[in-house]
Amino acid sequence: MSIKTGVSHARKADGTDYYRSSITFQNKHISLGSFSDKEMAHQAYLTASSLLNGTLVADIDSYQKSSHILSFDKWVMLVNLKCHGIYCRNPIFLQNRYFVYYLDERTPLKFDADDLFYYMSHKIMRRGGHLFVSDYGMQVNILSRYGIKNYAVAGRDYRFANGDPFDFRYGNIEIINRYHGVHKTIKNGKDLYVTKILINGEYIVGKYETETEAAIAYNKAAHLLKEKGFFKDFPENYIESIDEISYAKIYNQVRISKKIRSFVVQNI
User: Fold this and answer.
1) Which of 12, 36, 41, 207 would give a disulfide with 7, using CB separation of 3.0 to 4.6 Å?
2) Given the DSSP bridges, would you call strands 130-135 and 138-141 parallel, antiparallel or unpaired?
């Protein structure tokens, strides 16, 4: 069987033949994909070769004008290699002080350069409108890297400062509500933090001047309910900005609403 340049023959477990395409550039062996037809595999090699040697224009947009033999992911990887001399195993294109991760042709995600190493080794997937990576066998929402909880709602708990929901650079993400049960509002031009807890319906724990007080108030209400035998898995707010002594002082002083205390007396 005659095998063309950049193509190797292989066989699946069921005996079906297929062809692997690959190319070597700057002493790096790069897989271009697998194909059912050896001519397609060779065309993939020729396209990659033309891109890397300068015959094809090395930019992302020119993929629309290509033969589409290469997958879009591979195209991005090769363009980045040609332009920047770095081969990433994910569809990443480097920019000045940030990089673009192409989820698909129409969805470029922007990240700070500090995240490059992480996303070079973690593939981003999308399911049900959520973006996540596989980390130690678990599906991890990429928003968790910013301290945003899984239950958080865009526009309420966090927002994108420039209005671009695909710009994940740290300076563009503003966290509005970082703690369980705590929601920021404005009263008379000043920030006010409202704490609510879900029991049989939503109960207001209280309104507080600081986010820390509001978060600790949630913990205090949850502890009271648990101590009285209300069996519900209330999440715990962890406040890293204060030490244990300061936490205990606020915990003892913070007040929770009469409705919560009355619920404990009447229902537990």
Assistant:
1) 41
2) antiparallel
3-state secondary structure of 198: strand
> What pTM was computed for the model?
0.80
98 bridge partner residues: 112
CA distances from 134 to 88, 108, 126, 185 (A): 17, 20, 11, 35
pLDDT in tens, 256-266: 998 887 776 56
Going across the sheet that includes 92-94, the strands are 92-94, 98-104, 107-112
Structural domain boundaries in the chain: 1-87, 182-267
Dihedral sign from CA coordinates of 79, 84, 89, 91: negative
Distances in Å between the Cα of 159 and the Cα atoms of 154, 155, 177, 186, 252 are: 6, 5, 10, 16, 33
pLDDT in tens, 69-81: 899 999 999 999 9
111, 98 in Cβ contact below 8 A? yes
Mean pLDDT of 93-109: 96
Residue 67 has pLDDT above 70, yes or no: no
Task: Return the SS3 of 72.
Answer: helix
Strand 173-175 with 158-160, pairing:
antiparallel
**Inter-helix orientation angle 244-253/211-227, to 10°:** 70
Residue 246 one-letter amino acid: S
| Cross-strand partners of 223 | none
SS3 233: coil
What b-and-e string marks burial along 115-147, b requiring 16 or more CB atoms within 10 Å of the CB? bbeebbebebeeeeeebbbeeeeeeeebbeeee
